[in-house]
Amino acid sequence: xxxxxxxxxxxxxxxxxxxxxxxxxxxxxxxxxxxxxxxxxxxxxxxxxxxxxxxxxxxxxxxxxxxxxxxxxxxxxxxxxxxxxxxxxxxxxxxxxxxxxxxxxxxxxxxxxxxxxxxxxxxxxxxxxxxxxxxxxxxxxxxxxxxxxxxxxxxxxxxxxxxxxxxxxxxxxxxxxxxxxxxxxxxxxxxxxxxxxxxxxxxxxxxxxxxxxxxxxxxxxxxxxxxxxxxxxxxxxxxxxxxxxxxxxxxxxxxxxxxxxxxxxxxxxxxxxxxxxxxxxxxxxxxxxxxxxxxxxxxxxxxxxxxxxxxxxxxxxxxxxxxxxxxxxxxxxxxx
Length: 336
Ligand SMILES: [Zn+2]
Ligand SMILES: [Zn+2]
Description:
Bound molecules: zinc ion
Order of helices and strands: EEEHEEEHEEEHHEHEHEHEHEHEHEHE
Number of helices: 11
Low-confidence stretches: none
Radius of gyration: 20 Å
């Protein structure tokens, strides 16, 4: 089988022929049908995860079919359609694991960062961390939900989203465009904030009611003019200056949830925090429960991410184009 490999920080994607892995006890062998290309994969290539285990097969937005099951796997059978997120495994016995918070488990393993991921034709994974794919979701549409969709869904949930909320989304890439689709389907209202004027049409077509150009408008004033401000700001692009500029545009009791990690600190004015009882929080991808919930929600509401299909062989090109900021939507590697 073919596998795409990164040998270390700042290395190019290299392809190699490998033997198809054999699932051990409690594991399944997944025939990967589609794998999304996440900004996290680029961070891995750039060496921004100190805990990464190179050489590594990247990819943590996996949709595929069970090819083979190992010993003691009872819930899944060959032929089942499944997905796997960045949550490859966790200890299963700590407080976080018992509270649907496996992503905060200190023993967590990351798909495609500490364990080989989905940029290959077949991969093994622990059966209990694999989620069934609803029939209505095809593989290519499901893949971006495994990280981008999950991260936004879980972030909104933890930020206390409710129908009718005004949600401002900073950035309209993989996470941002799914944030617009998810909030609209959850009966929220959306404003998109971006530094690219060219994204206005896409934002409005996806269901945003307004577009705020971060280069020419003052985001805090524009948001406060929106019936008092945003109840939630979802910060997807890793730009601290955009977050700082938008923060005072939160409504009273509003929450900014940081999903994209800028390299520098986010310097928020304490008076903006205190005098509006505002919150600044972060949120990692999500739990197994969040994953099953977002898949079910997306299937029920017919969510269709904006995807660009590429063959596995173009994984290196996809990462390069992402690095240059030339991707509109989500690249999904499709296996033959
Ligand atoms: Zn644990
Ligand atoms: Zn990701």
